[in-house]
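Hey, can you fold this one?
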Amino acid sequence: MKQLLATGALGDCHVVAGEEGLNRVVSDVFVTAHCDLATPISTGLLVVLDARELQPNSYALDVALRTVRDGEGSGLVAVNAVSATGIATRRLADRFSTALVETEATDVLAMAAAARELVLQPAVHQAAMMSRLLRGLDRATTVDGTLALASEILGRPCSLVEASGAVIAGPQVSVRPQALRQHAYHAPDVGSGGEPGMVCPVVVVPGEPVRLWLVCVLADGDEPIQRAGLDLLGVASWAVGANLVHDRLAMERDARHRLALLNEVVGSGELPDEAILAQMATFGWSAAGWISAFHVQLSGPVDSNWVLVNTDALAETLVEVGIDGPLIERTDGWSGWVCAPTEPAVGDYQSLTRSLYDALLSLVADADGVSAHAGVGRPATGLPGLRAGLTEARQAAALAGAGARRVAVRHIDELGIQRIMLGWYGSADFGRVVAAFLEPLTSEDSDGELLRTLQTYLDCQSSATSTAAALGVHRNTVMKRVDRIADTLNVNLHDPDQRLALQLVVRMHRLDQAGR
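Sure. Predicted structure:
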């Protein structure tokens, strides 16, 4: 009220009473010639009363004041009153803390319209900002484009951040992770330095936990932006979510095309080699020179989306360690290869496996429960060589995954007797033998706890203490499980021959599971 009166929009007015109400917020302006208990009053409404028809010394102003007070209006402006306001009315305004203002105007409607235009200017400005955003979103089809548009309209930088506060897209900002909540809001301490700001969650898939937020860090004195900007940021967050879904679908589509071509390369399709080479060229893949193929197998809490999201990061890491070539996503990992103009030296495979190991170790360092096992094939030439190398790499990855290490990389030439074992297990006869022998254990071991204990116990050379440390349980727990396993399988684990046979069966079972 105080600011509105100072603008002069209500003419040469003066406050008659109710000065304590001058700090009330005016939400709208309403013109009437009669204001009684039947007049609808909303919160913050300023009533402009045309008082020319009021009788002197009537109770009309008292009724109007009570109506404004009861409806939580912001004040009452009496225009062109025919008599001075009585002392009882002024006391009533003071008691209600409702501002009572008197003024003169030739055109009451024009004066009220001018005041209303000022009052609604923030909402009009906000509507103009929203209209500008909606029009601009037709052209802003990327996350960066949407953030740039929102930043331009708000006049403050807008960024996309994840749960730790790290910036995913947009200008670099420093955000307190505690400020990232599940709902949109503005707060005085969004920035890590205590700066005010606005935060809005980005919903990519409804029902999934929120992992990304739009953040706009403000400066002191930006309260008007806070009031208008949060709704704008909310609309921008939906646009960013749509951008991210579009990017995900595009990645999945491209990944399906690359995987389909990979299947053709390894021989599961019907295209001739010339057609395969032509399609490889369109993807920028080469089968020229000497090719060393690799195969990465993931296990743990991963899915095809996890693979897609981490493909670019793995590709960058591989280039950093000297592995620069195609990287094709599969639902459970990646396949790829590198080309060299000349035949690699015999010892070069060690450098390749070490570099691949370093890259995978970096990939899963912060991914709880995720394991990565890879294999490398022999170097060979041409498309037939690539096909053979990918097959060998897959075999080597299966054997690398048979161990207990979280990250392991094996070259096909390192495997020796394990390849013979894998081929042996590939026979249907031996597969039936292993399945039948372990069936009493697997049938009552629904969560695989006993089988894992047996594998670890045999790997630890039948040491209950080492097994307990590896499994994170008490030694007595291991001994109880081992006794139960021996009774279930009807074997004597103290007999070296029976223990060797059981270890062979368990290793074969593990190799089969890793190769599936």
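The first helix runs from residue 2 to 7. Let me know if you want another pass with a different chain boundary.
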